[in-house]
Design goal:
By secondary structure, the chain is mainly α. It contains five helices and two strands; from the N terminus they run E-E-H-H-H-H-H. The protein has one domain. Helix content is 84%, strand content 3%. The chain has a two-stranded antiparallel sheet. The longest helix is centred in the middle third of the chain and has 36 residues. It comes from Nocardia aurantiaca.
Length: 154
């Protein structure tokens, strides 16, 4: 996908990622730490994690197309490098959400999930959520600098 209604698809998709990655991470952490929230939100969180995991490579691919259109200014190279790294930060959100959903299902079925296991899952959710949000910030910041410093004014 290169353009949508005349705009580079990357410019549109990136806004979805910038909203959904932090939202998914925050809800995942909430579900990991608060059992009442888990009961209501775990399945939407899993759905969001699947969506974000699917959209991230599409956004990266659209960004590669956009980068080819712009040439290779160093600030765009840095943004592209950081954007590619998102492919390593988003799938752990999905893995964490699935592990938490599995633990939730076990508890709903009356099977014990040990405190140590719950603590490890919570730490996994916090770590993957925080890392994904931090990387989203880094990518977005580098893209904003590229735009607002005039590099992408075409």
């Amino acid at each position: 996908m290169s353009t949508f209604n005349g705009l580079p698809a990357h410019v549109l998709l990136v806004h979805v990622i910038v909203v959904l990655v932090p939202l998914t991470a925050a809800l995942l952490i909430l579900c990991a730490l608060w059992p009442a929230a888990r009961g209501r939100l775990i399945w939407p969180v899993v759905g969001l994690a699947v969506l974000v995991t699917a959209l991230t490579p599409v956004t990266v691919e659209a960004g590669e197309w956009f980068q080819r259109q712009l040439g290779m200014p160093p600030v765009v190279d840095e943004h592209a490098r950081l954007g590619h790294q998102m492919l390593y930060f988003v799938p752990p959100l999905l893995i964490s959400a699935v592990v938490l959903a599995f633990a939730h299902l076990r508890q709903e079925r009356g099977k014990a999930v040990g405190r140590a296991a719950v603590a490890v899952i919570a730490l996994l959710a916090i770590a993957t959520g925080a890392a994904a949000v931090w990387q989203t910030y880094r990518v977005g910041d580098s893209g904003a600098h590229a735009v607002w410093n005039g590099v992408l004014n075409h």
